[in-house]
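Lab meeting prep.
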Amino acid sequence: MKKERHSEILKIISENEISTQEELLSMLENAGYSTTQATVSRDIKDLGLVKQMNKNGVYCYAKNYPDTEEFLSKFNAIFSHSVISADYAGNITVFKCYNGMAQAACAAFDNMKWEGLVGTLAGDDTFFALCRTEQLAKELADSVTKLLK
C-alpha cells in the first residue's frame, strides 16, 4: 500500500500545484487513499520532496532531483577531505574520519541513497552505516575504499 501511495503522491505533485500537506491529503483521499496528515508528512520525507518555486511563482511540492554530476562531485570532495578509511564487521560499515568531519561525511553519504542501507549514525571522527546484510557492508566498505584511493 505504501508503494502505491508514494506512486500516487508523485503523480499528484507532477500534475498539480500542491503547496500544503492538507492539499496533498485531500488529493490522496480523492484518489481513494484514506490516510492521515502524519502519514503524508512521513511520505513527504521518505520521498525527499521539497518545496520549489514553479513557473507561476508558487512554492509547490516537487521531487528533488539533484544534478547528478555536480552531486557526485560534491560527494567525492567531501569524502576525499573527510574520510580516512572504511571497514566492516558483520553488517555494519565503519568509516574513520578526520576529527570533526564525520557528521559532514555522513550527511553526504546519506544523500547518496546506497543500496541496502538501513541507516547511519555519526560521531565526531567516526560514522557507522547499518546494512541489511554482511555482504552489502563488505561491498560498501570496498567501494568507499576504492573511492578514497
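Slide two material, second protein:
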Amino acid sequence: MKTLLKNAREQKGLKTREVAQLLGIDQALISKFESGNRKPTREQVIKLASLLEIDLETIMVAWLKEKILYEIGQDEFALKALLVAEEEIRYQSKSPKKKISTTLQKILDEIDTLKRKLDGFRQFDSYSISQALELEYTFESNRIEGNTMTLRETDLVINEGLTISGKSMREHLEVINHQEAIAYIKDLMQRSKFINESEVLSIHNLILRGIHPEDAGRYRKVQVMIQGSSHLPPFLVAKEMGDFFIWYETNKNSLHPVVLAAEIHERLVIIHSFIDGNGRTSRLLMNLILLQHGYIIANIKGDYESRMLYYQALERAQTKNNKEDFLLFIAQTEKESLERYLSIIGR
C-alpha cells in the first residue's frame, strides 16, 4: 500500500506537506504511511483515496491485506482461520440488504428512461437554454432561503450587472454568489470524479463570500438552534463530516445516483456544518452528483407549497429516521426537471 500512496501522490504533483494540510494530518504521518512504518486508519485511507483519486476498492484491499498480515503474521493456525473467516464473510454478504420501495424504484426507472432520451438529444444542448435554467435554479434556491428578488430581478443582477432598488446588499450577493457556485460545480463536474472536503468547503466559501467572510468555507464554531432544537455541538462537526465523507466513499458506487444525491443532501443538512448557507450548499452538492452522472439539475421550487413539502420531507427524515418521503421528493423533482428540459430542447 505504501507504494500505491506514494505513486498516487507524485502523479498528482503533491508534496507530503500539501497532502497533510489538505487532510488535516501531521506531515510526519504521511511520510510514515509511505515508508510503511505506520498504518493509516480506515478513515484516513478513505480520505487519502478521495484526495489522491485512488480506486477505493484497490486501496481498501491493500489496507485490509496488510491489517490481516499484521494481526495473524506467521501463526500456525493462520490459514485455517482465514478459511473459516472467508466462509463467515461469504455468509454475511448474502444477508438481505435494505431495498428501496416499489414507488421509488418506479420513479427511478422513469428517470432513467428520460435520461436515455436526453442522451440522444445531447447534440441539441443549447448554452442559452442551460443559462436560463441555471438562472431559474439560482432564483428558486435563494427564494427557498427567503431572498425576495423576482426572477426578472435575478436576471438583471446576473446578466446586466444592475442594482435593484429596495433590495439589500445581502440579497444581491446571494444571487451573484450562487450563480458563481453553479459555475464552480460545473467545472468540478468536468475535472473531478469524486467529491471531497476541499470541494465542499469551496462551494460554501462561494455561497457566503462577502456575506459572512469570516465564516465562508469554514465549519461553524458555535452552537446553533433551529426552531427550538439544537444541532450538533461544534466540536462534533469535524468528526461528523469525516463520517460523511466515509459514507460517501463507501456508497458512491452502489447507490442509484439520484438516491446518492438525495442522501448526500439530507446528511449534510442534518450535520448543519456551517453557521449559514447549509441549504444552498447541500442542494449544490446534490446537483453536482447528479451532473457528474449525466443527469440535470434538480430544481426545487421556492414557492410556499413546494417549500413546505421540501421542509416537511426533510424533517421526517431527520426526526423520524424515515427518508422515504425525502427520497421520493428529490426523485420526483429530478423527473420533472428532466421532463421540462426535454420538452424545451425537443421543440
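Talking points for slide two:
The chain is about 70% helix and 0% strand.
The chain has a mean pLDDT of 89.
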